[in-house]
Specification:
This protein has seven helices and five strands. The protein is α/β, with parallel strands linked by helices. The mean pLDDT is 80.
Length: 165
């Protein structure tokens, strides 16, 4: 994917919830001598800001590796039009917030999101859990909620509204 995106001249954000996975990915990127930046919680605020500025303004830096938790709030990365999620996060809304970094006001290109998944692993179950959570929230917030809420059991409703059963 990265080779194709770089050939197309597209900037790419790669998210992982595991900084160690980003470390592993950095090895082949460095071997290919691709210009790459990092954004994770171990960096100072100044270093993170400098990485964002360089990614946004320097056409030679087309890859940014971001830890999912560090990159889920307050970033504007419309310089990127490609997003890769290396591993799914159990909470779909954290993942959605991270992906939204490329969908901010000012985005000039269509954004593509790619998820790297391995079948029949815990990742499959995480995606299933994400879908259940998404459906539960959509059901509760839907105008026709009274009909669809009947399909949720007591425990699910209690969890949704923070009530201990």
């Amino acid at each position: 994917l990265l080779e194709k995106f770089l050939q197309d001249g597209q900037k790419t954000i790669i998210f992982s919830q595991f900084v160690s996975l980003l470390d592993l990915l950095q090895v082949p990127i460095d071997e290919k001598e691709w210009k790459c930046l990092r954004y994770d919680g171990s960096m100072s605020a100044d270093a993170r800001n400098a990485a964002i500025v360089k990614f946004t303004e320097n056409p030679h830096y087309n890859i940014m590796l971001i830890s999912l938790k560090a990159g889920n709030a307050g970033l504007n990365l419309v310089a990127a039009s490609r997003v890769i999620i290396l591993d799914p996060f159990w909470n779909p809304f954290i993942e959605m917030q991270a992906v939204d970094r490329a969908y901010r006001i000012g985005q000039q290109r269509p954004v593509e999101v790619h998820r790297i998944l391995i079948e029949k692993t815990v990742e499959d179950r995480i995606i299933e859990l994400q879908e259940r959570k998404r459906k539960m929230v959509e059901s509760a917030l839907d105008e026709g909620a009274s009909k669809s809420l009947g399909r949720l059991d007591v425990q699910q409703l209690a969890f949704l509204f923070g009530v201990n059963t």
